[in-house]
Amino acid sequence: MAAAHLTAAAQHETARLLDGQTLADVSFWADEIRNHRPETSRWHFVDIPRDRDDYRPERDCQRTERGDCIIAAITRLRTRLEDLQTPFDERAEALRYLVHLVADLHQPLHCVDDHDRGGNDVAVTVFGRPMNLHAAWDTGLIAVSGLSEATWTQRLEAWLAGQDTTRLATGTVVDWALESHRAAVEHVYALPPSGRLGRRYLEASRPVLERQLALGAIRLARVLNEAFAR
After folding, report:
1. Domain 1-230 belongs to what architecture?
2. Most buried pick, 8, 36, 128, 155, via CB within 10 A?
């Protein structure tokens, strides 16, 4: 979906940097290499406490010289991608990371800290299938919808067609993280005491899930369009 919203310049540059691969082709790369690059593991999330509604780098982003959380990582990678003096391979790697991390930023459990490792320690069942809450929001709720990838894309594009996409794509990385955080607090953690997620939870969650997926797409497109604007 992000690829469909790229400018001609961004399309050309992404194809060049990815050696012909698509954004979808490289979308899981940052996860696939994480075990080989453990220093990047904290780039995938930010620990904004569940009971807070603000972002404080000194509290929420690991205290290193550069800051190791998804907000700091996206900011650094955007700068690296935009800098034409940066070596080709480093810019290509920055692009691969950005494709993944902008998506992660819109998965609500990547932007909240409830001392449960982003929902990984919360056991639930999704229509009877055991998994953790993080996995439910990564893939579980999408899978049980019974919709194909093509149908999901059509639904999301149809929703975007009725929106002011320029307005939706505005804001900073911090704004987007706080928006995801609110979605986690208000919707993701609205769990039944039993932990059994069924039709009611799915129907309540689907509008949030669809919105976050669509926002991730158009905001990734904005990041890349700005990076490659000449």
Report:
1. Orthogonal Bundle (1.10)
2. 155
